[in-house]
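Write out a record, fold above all:
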Amino acid sequence: MKIWVDGDACPVVIKDILFRAAQRLGVSLTLVANRLLRVPPSPHIRALQVPGGFDVADKHIAAAVEAGDLVITADIPLAAAVIDKGGFALNVRGEFYSPENIRERLNMRDFMEGLRSAGAQISGPAALSQADRKAFADQLDRFLAARK
C-alpha cells in the first residue's frame, strides 16, 4: 500500500501529519504537485514535480494509483477515479469518499460549478479547524492500523 497526496492544495499541517505517519510506519508517501515541494529526508517520503497545467498532478495520481492505495485529496473527480480503481480517498477534513457517497459529491460539485459560472458569489470551504486536523489524524491512524 502506498499513500499519494494531491500536494498542490494540501495544507502544511496535514502534510506534517502524513510525514510523521509515513516515517513511523515505514509507509511509502508520495506528494505530487506542479511545484517543487520540500519534504523531510526519509527513504519513505518523496515529492514528485509534474509539469504545470490543469489537473496534471491529479491525472498522474489517477494513473499511478493501485487498488488498496490511499490518496489524500479534496478533488472530487480524482477521488472518484481512485475509488473506481479500488483505492481509498480521504480528504483533509478526515472524511473518506466512498462508492456510496462519491456520486452525490460529484453532483454537488457540478451544481456549485454551474452556479459559479453563472456569476453566483459562493464562498469557498471554511478554514481547516483544529477539529478537522484531529479528525484527519484519527482517520489516517485507523486506516493505517487496519492495514498493518
Q: What stands out?
A: Strands lie at 2-6, 28-33, 45-49, 70-72, 88-90, 96-97. The radius of gyration is 15 Å. Residues 61 and 123 are 28 Å apart (CA to CA).
